[in-house]
Amino acid sequence: MRFLTGFEARSVSFNAGLGVKTISEMTVPLGMMYNPSDRLALDFGIRYASVSRTPTDTTPKVTVSGPTDVQVRAVYQVIPDRVVLTLAGNVPTGKTKLSDPEQQAVGAVASELIPFPVSSFGTGANVTTGLAVAIPVAGWAVGVAGAYRLSGAFTPLIQRDTSYKPGGELRFRIGADRVVGQGRVSLGFTYSSFSQDEWGGASFFQPGKRYISQASWSFPVGNLGLALYAWDLYRTSGTVLLNRGVTEKQNVLTAGVAASVQLGRSVLRPQIEFRKHTAGVDKLEAAGQLLSLSARLSMPVSESFALTPAVRFDTGNIVSGATYGFTGWGLSVGIRATL
Q1: What ranges do the domains of the chain cover?
Q2: How many other C-beta atoms are found inside a 10 Å radius of the C-beta of residue 279?
Q3: What pLDDT score does 209 carry?
Q4: Among 17, 25, 150, 273, which is most buried by a count of CB atoms within 10 Å?
Q5: Strand partners, 231
Q6: Bridge partner residues of 76 (DSSP)
Q7: N- to C-terminal Cα distance for the chain?
Q8: Contact 300/309 with Cβ under 8 angstroms?
Q9: CB half-sphere exposure, 90, CA atoms < 13 A
Q10: CATH no. of 68-299+317-327
Q11: Residue 36: is its pLDDT beyond 90?
Q12: How far is CA 62 from CA 23, 50, 273, in A?
C-alpha cells in the first residue's frame, strides 16, 4: 500500500490593464494506492485547495478554500497486459455553490493556458467506465481504449437554486510505442464528444468536440536521459442552445524537453516547456503563450519513503484585445510512503 501527500503553491502576477493583479493557489493532496491482487489496483485521491484572486482596483481579494471532490478508481486486468477494465467515480465532497466573485476566482485557475494544480473544487457526482486493449503490431505495441463518463447534476450558484448537469462524455483513444535504437517513441490520439449540458432540467449548451494528439521520443545521451514531447488540444466551437450563440474554438499547442540526471540515489529532472494558445469564432488567433522552466528532484530517503521537491518559473502573455504580460512561480514537495 502506498500513501501520497505533500504541498504545492503556485502564483501568477499580471501586468496592469487586465483587471487582475495576482492569482494564487495552494493545495495539499492526499492519495492512497492499494493492490489487493496482481490483477486489481485501487486508488483514492482528494485535495484541500485554497484559491485567491486579487483585482487591480479597490475590489477586495476573493479567496475560496475547501476540499475538492473525492476521486476513486479500480483497474482490473482481465487479461494481464492485454485487456484492462477501469471503473472510476467522482464523489461530490467539494464546494459547488459559489457567489459571482468566487466563480471568478475559481474560473481563473481553470485557464486553458496557465496550468494550476486544482482547476475545479467540485463538479457533482460522475461515473466513468473504460476498456483498453493492447496488441503487438509490426514491432509496435498498440493500444485502443474507449470510455464513457456519466455526470450528475449540481448547483453552481449560491444565489440561485438551479441545477446544472454536464452532458455525458464519450472518449476514444489509440496509442502506439516502440523501441527505436536505445530510445522509445510514443504516439497517441484521443477523440471526445459530449451530449448536451442541462440548466434547470432543460437543454442549455452543446459542447464542442475535442481532439488531442501526442508524441514523445525518449533516448539516452551519455549519462543523461532526454525526452522530447509535444501535444496539441483542439476544441471545436460549442453552441448555446437558448440563443444559438457560438463559443470560440480553441487550440493549445505544447512542446518541451525534459532531462533526467542521476545524482547518486536521487534523480534530477529539469524541464523546459512552451505553450501557445489560440482561439476564435471564425478563425484561430493568438490568445496567449507560456514559457515554463522547472526542476524536480526525486529523493529516496529509505526503501519505503521518498521526497520529491520541485520548483518552477513561468513567463508569458495573454491576448485579450491588447497583450498583457505575466510572470509566475511554483513550489512543491511530494511525499510517498510505502507500507
Answers
A1: 68-299+317-327
A2: 20
A3: 97
A4: 25
A5: 214, 254
A6: 40, 85
A7: 5
A8: no
A9: 21
A10: 2.40.160
A11: yes
A12: 10, 10, 30
- Name residue 323's amino acid: T
Count other Cβ atoms within 10 Å, centred on residue 90. Answer: 22
Q: What is the torsional sign of CA 106, 154, 86, 39?
A: positive
Provide CB contacts within 8 A for 209, sequence distance 6+: 191, 192, 193, 194, 235, 236
- Please provide the average confidence, as pLDDT, over all residues in the chain: 95
pLDDT(112) > 90: no
Tens digit of each residue's pLDDT (9 = 90 or more) over 165-211: 999 999 999 999 999 989 999 999 999 999 999 999 899 999 999 99
> Which set of grid coordinates corresponds to residue 16?
496592469
What is the number of other CB atoms lying within 10 angstroms of the CB of residue 33? 16
pLDDT of residue 222: 87
* Residue burial 55-87, b: 16+ Cβ < 10 Å; e: rest: beeeeeebebeebbbbbebebebeeeeeebebe
pLDDT 10s digits, 49-60: 999 999 988 889
DSSP string covering 90-114, please? EE--S---B-HHHHHHHHHTT-SSS
- CA gap 71, 110 in Å, rounded: 18
How many secondary structure helices (H) and strands (E) does the chain include? 1, 22
Place of cell 514531447: 229
Distance set, CA 9 to CA 25, 74, 99 (Å): 6, 29, 24
260 close to 242: Cβ distance less than 8 angstroms: no
